[in-house]
Please model this.
Amino acid sequence: MEYPELLEEIFHAVQPYVGKGKVADYIPALAQIPADKFGMSLCLMDGREYVIGDADEPFSIQSVSKVFSLVLALNRLGSQVWERVGKEPSGNAFNSLVQLEYENGIPRNPFINAGALVVTDWLLGCSVDPTIELLAWLREATSNPGIHVDLEVADSEWEHRDRNAALTHFMKSCGNIHSSVDRVLRTYFEHCSIAMSCRDLARAGLLLAGHGKSPRCSDRFLTRSQAKEVNALMLTCGTYDAAGDFAFRVGLPGKSGVGGGILAIIPNLMSIAVWSPALDAKGNSMAGVEALERFTTLTGISVF
Ligand SMILES: NC(=O)CC[C@H](N)C(=O)O
Model:
């Protein structure tokens, strides 16, 4: 089956799941997003691109930004990053506090909130403005100069920051946060509030399909080993305490966000982005996971 027909088939098959689940409302600005959206984009290493549905509508990438923050930190700092954040799945919710005290303020991995807050702190230690650097890279990788931080979402996250503030304060008490808590939180919320479409997200993901060198960018951004590390972490930790289920059903490295987006990588071949805002109980897009499962089932392509 050709990709355009495949996308049509997936689009129709997932309709019963679109709007099922719950749009994230603990960030009030996200609660206003209509639940019935669905978009999907495939961006291939050879330059072909296929989209369906609401694939050109920007949405809040939320935790998908944790991939890009980590990529930037690895680019700037290399393996030093792992001195302050682990590489193991947490088995807990993305915003859980419980492991941190047992594990001396070292988060399990960079794809839960605590881990991304440490990565943000790393970035603040080596860059005057990590958000500007992140946006610059994303704009180049997507050829979309319009990619921006949605300030309404960032402000909404800031106003309801108690849990992320608790995580950051606790890690600071353990010596694992070096900048001020407010600065770390503000920067982390800016990254979560970046607005991108599925088309943008799939384009940005080509860096990871391309083992650290996106065919869309002039420079290699990560070494081959670093790209392997990021993909491995996406597979094992990218969907929080549902990572086992996601690997079982989809069989690809993937990173979700509570905005309803998921980025999935097929090394050497393509990057896939899906978006549908209604979430399952673990905070992953219900229709998005369904669509990816159908993609790997119908094509027979996965990393396994
Ligand atoms: N899982 C997510 O997408 C969570 C990101 C969100 N900004 C938070 O910190 O709670």
User: Anything to note?
Assistant: The chain has 13 helices and ten strands. The domain at 3-298 is CATH 3.40.710.10 (Beta-lactamase).
